[in-house]
Amino acid sequence: MDRLNNEAREDYANHLLTLLKDNKHAKFRIDFLELHPIDQAEFFITLDKDERQTLYQILTSEEMAGVFQGLDFEEQKDLITETDQYYAANMINHLYADDAADFLSELEHSEAQKLLKAMNLEEANDVKELMAYPPKTAGAIMTKEFISLSSTNTVQEVIEKLRAEGPNAETIYYLYVVNPSNQLVGVLSLRDLITAPSDIRVETLMSPRVVSVIASTNQEEVAKIIKKYDFLAAPVTDDEGVLLGIVTVDDVIDVLEDEATEDFGDFTASRGATDVNVTSFKAARLRAPWIVLLMFFGLITAGVIDQFEETLNQIVLLAAFIPLLMGSAGNAGTQSLAVVVRGLALGTLEKKGLFQTLLREFYTGMMIGLICAASLMIIIPIFYGNLMLAFIVGISIFFSLSVATVIGAIVPLIINKLKLDPAFASGPFITTVNDILGLIIYFTIATALLDLL
């Protein structure tokens, strides 16, 4: 199969399905195994239960491991329940240890233990080791399938070792050098290895300056290090420098996706409920606390309006601009929140300086406020014929946006100082705070200038 565009994939999937239904299992097996594992997984999820049972009989547990890795957790769980324990355990034996640990960690404890007991002892011990690390740390996401060398090995010896152990390693682009105590002392790239004479020793080729992380390092920090140095993998050690495993770039991509999903959930006050597969009950349970809390904040907004009831009674038209003031201030604050959270996540905020960042956001808010104020001072007199009303709304939005950008920037900075995730300063929270401040500014100015209306 030379090339697979979307149409070709669909035709090929139909071809495979026909072979499966016609019981041409030998031909199906050959053609199916030509597919990339991701395409195999996509074909797998289109099958009904009986067709999947036939597939389990055609493919070995090792071959099914490639399909398994391309599935979502719920689909993986279904696959496990549809096969016998021996087949399932042997399939997990052929996963990389970090992938197996990720899956088993999501299962009920009793189910995970049954599978671990049925697995190969060495593989099970590696998986248990990874599962013992705290979630979201380098130890929890590292893999045990890597190549380590001795500094006294020759290039020829290393190449022979790669031929023997390489097929089972997750990556061989970096080869890590350890001393007799298994402490990390150097790193050797595959490029340097294959371009060197066969009798040269590793110690003359390796770089002794190794960028590594310890097992307790937060996974987000690991991702930053791999991104910073453009690594394909980073070694993980214990506090004594003993090499424990490696974190590969594909794991980092998953980490970045998970962290982005969490931050998006925090921004929208819906952490844990952004997955479309989450049930309505669970989504409501996760989202309701924030909504209820923000509802009580809304009562403060109502209280602010109530405090200026006399002003509203005299000039009812002021009420027409409340949504405009609240919406603009909330949006400006959320924009500043996004800027600061991104800066904290990428580490660019420290380079720029906190004070400079706050000053920049304040000036940005002032300029946006001036643009909005000028626009309103032109539009309002045309539609409402009241120049003083235009001035009140314009000057109010100017001050509201200036303050809102500072609030949107300073709240995540405070939360970050408290060692919490700055994205926790969610958009709805910032919006509600700025709504309240915007209303206070608006009605204070309107009350002060009431006699001129």
TrEMBL record:
The keyword Metal-binding applies. CDD domains: CBS_pair_Mg_transporter. Its main location: membrane. The chain crosses the membrane at residues 288-305, 317-341, 362-384, 390-415, 427-450. InterPro entries: CBS_dom, CBS_dom_sf, Mg_transptr_MgtE_intracell_dom, MgtE_N_sf, MgtE_transporter, SLC41_membr_dom, SLC41_membr_dom_sf. NCBIfam families: mgtE. This is Magnesium transporter MgtE. It comes from Halalkalibacter krulwichiae. The gene is mgtE_2.
